[in-house]
Write a structure and sequence with these properties.
By secondary structure, the protein is an all-beta fold. Helix content is about 5%, strand content about 55%. The protein has one helix and nine strands. Strands 1, 2, 3, 4 and 7 form a five-stranded antiparallel sheet that branches. It starts with a strand and ends in a 13-residue tail after the last strand.
Length: about 140
Amino acid sequence: MAVSSWFPTDNEYIHWRIEAVVNSQSMQDNTSNVTVRVFVARTNSYVPGTQGHGTTYATINGSSYSEYHNHVDEDIFITRSGLYMFTQNVTVPHDADGTKTLTITANINYSRFTATDQTYTLALPAIIRATVPALS
């Protein structure tokens, strides 16, 4: 699993990060199946935690996604243990040589805090490409 550094929010007690897991790769299709997640946690052990509602937005390899949560209705709190505010599974095409640098940009618009755009870039494991011998 690849994990960004912690990013700040406008609430000094809440921070967040972007995570990416490569689930599988296809040599035939020259693609990776990747799960991207946004993880949010409190920096202190305030009890019971922070509760609210809002949307996490992400752009993954140029495609836009969003996920809404109403933690009040779900009776879920953001605590020091944290929780996932966004999960998206994507198929990412690699470059012709089998390499790929994946760029993920995300932000959070939540009733108790706001997190502005942050970008996380990671190199996916290269996919070995078959070579065709040339006749000379």
